[in-house]
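Example record for the data management plan.
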Amino acid sequence: MRIPSAPCLLLAAATFAAAGTSPRAAAARPAARLADAQSASAALKASGDAMMVEKRYEEALAAYEAAAKSSADPALHYNRGRALQFLARYPEALAALRRFQAEAPASVRARVPALTEIIDEVRARVARIRVRCDVAGARVMLARQEIGRTPFDAPLAVNAGHATLEIVAEGYVPSSSEIDLAGGEVLREIDVRLVPRNRIGVLVVKSGVAGTRAEIDGKPIGMAPAEAPLEAGQHAVAALHEGYGPVRTQVVVAAGERRELTLDPIAPTPVYKRWWLWTSVGVAVAGAVVTAVALKTEKSPPIGTFSPGQVRF
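Corresponding structural encoding:
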C-alpha cells in the first residue's frame, strides 16, 4: 500500500481545517445530505398521497414529481400515473404506469393486484397519430394543444376521441379538420398539404333562406353566410337545408380574389300545388260530372207506338 507523504497529509488536513471541519465530519456530509433528501422526498410523497385522497390531482402530481427528483422509489411512477390518469393526460399516465410495471420489484407490484386492468383501462383511452405534412416546421395542434412540429420521427401518443386537428405554418393557409381517434393505441395516419397564401382566393357563400348550410367540395363550411379560403381553380358548391331541395353549382375562384355567391335551397312545393294531387282531383271531378249527367239524362224505358188495348191500321 502506498502511504501518502507528509506534505499530502498536511495539505489534506489544512484543507479540512480551512473548511472548519474534520475529515470524518466531511465524509459524513454526503450521507447526511442523502438522508435529508430521502426524508424530504418521503414527506413530498406523503403530501401527494393526501392530495390524491382530496382529489387535488394537479397538486398531487406536482408533489410526486418533486419527490422523484431526489428519490428512486418506483412507487412514485405508479402514483404519478394515477394522478395523470385522473387529469385525463392518458398517454403520460400510460408511460408512467408501464415504467412502474417494468422497474418495480415483484414485492412492490404485488401491492397493486389490479395493475394490469388499470393499464388496460388507460391504454383504451390512448391513440397514436402520425402527421405527414409537405411543409417542415409546421405546428401541429390537437384539441388546441400543440403536440409538435413537422416532420415527426415517430407516431405520437395522444388522447383518443373526437378532436380538431390544426396545422399552421408561416405563409400558408392553416389546415383544420375534425377527426376521430380510436383508443387502444390504434395508429391514425394523416397526410396534409398546405397551400401557399399567394395561391388562395376566398369564397363567401350566402343564402336568402335562414338556416342554410354551405358545402364546398363536399366539406361543410358552416351556416350561410360562410366563407372559406380556397386554392385558385374550380370548386363544387352546395346549399343544403332540412326539408328543402339542395342546390349545387360550380364556381371558379382566382388567386387573391374575394368572391361572393348566393344560393337558395329549393323550397318544398305546397300540397295544393302538386301536379299529382290535381290530376287525381281532376279524375274525381270528371267522374262526378259523368255520374251527374247520367243521373239527369236517364229516361223511362220506351213503350213502343201502340197504346195499351188499341190497334191502329
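Summary line stored alongside the record: Residues 126-192 form a domain with the Immunoglobulin-like fold (CATH 2.60.40.1120).
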